[in-house]
Write a structure and sequence with these properties.
mainly alpha; about 150 residues
Length: about 150
Amino acid sequence: MELQLRKLPIDIIHTIIQYTYNLQNKNLLQDIEHYTESKIKINTLYHNYFINYIGEPVDLEEDKNWLINDLFGYTNKYSATMFGYLDDFYKVFQRNLLLLSQYDVNNYIIHLENKNVSTQINIFWGLLTIEERNIFIYSKLYMLLN
């Protein structure tokens, strides 16, 4: 990284460095920290259950496939997506400021489903609030352990 910075013109370096001194919103920093920690928890939970306990094939990423399926269900209030998306689903995706309408969200979902499963999980997980992530983790933990 440092080597790449040295290749940049000095005026661009000064512009970039200015942003490193700006304080970030505390809520945003908490969200970033929670995103990372909670994603490790949920990935571990699903891996331990579906790969280690159930014995699904690791090479097929069945744990991740189950996780993205459950995230679709959770954001759509566990209503079957074949009947369409609920308003709550659209509200989650409209947190992305580029997705202003249901039409935008529908098109985005079509393209999202063509991405690899890890990318899909990262996007869903990033759109959830800290509270929603916690609810999802603890509800799945309860369900998988009982």
